Model the fold of this input.
Amino acid sequence: MIRTGLRIRDVNAKCEQVKKMKALLALEDGRIFPCRSFTGPGEARGEAVFNTSMTGYQEILTDPSYYGQMVTMTYPLIGNYGISPEDVESSRIQAAAFIVKEYQDFPSNFRSRGTLADYLIKSHVLGVEDLDTRVQRLCLAAPGEKTLGGGPGFRY
Done:
């Protein structure tokens, strides 16, 4: 579960102070990971999964096989090529939350039509960064299904 102190009310809000909120990510076994939301306030719960791809984050987010899951990307820098309408796998984001080591808010790609953060915000999907995704991946790779939750203002 990931939880923030507030709810997303204005999906067009661009304020960096709101976007970069402290957050907590909690595994159901009690382990807590401090992190930051790059999409502002919110809350998410779901099965924790990871993906080791170096590219294709938009395809991963819109892939129906990730429906309701909290996807952790193990590649350390995500967001650097932005969002393109040609790169979707379905009509909407399927993931419940998106977890990365470092989010890049300034895409550099001629095909980019927006930032990953804005794409997630418009779909009311929580984006989290500043997490050691390698350590989290090791926790997730242990046998058994894992459930995550948390966000800015998460109380445990």
In short: Residues 70 and 97 are 5 Å apart (CA to CA). Helices lie at 16-19, 57-62, 116-122, 133-141. The beta strands are 2-3, 21-27, 32-37, 43-51, 70-73, 77-78, 97-99, 102-103, 126-129, 147-151.
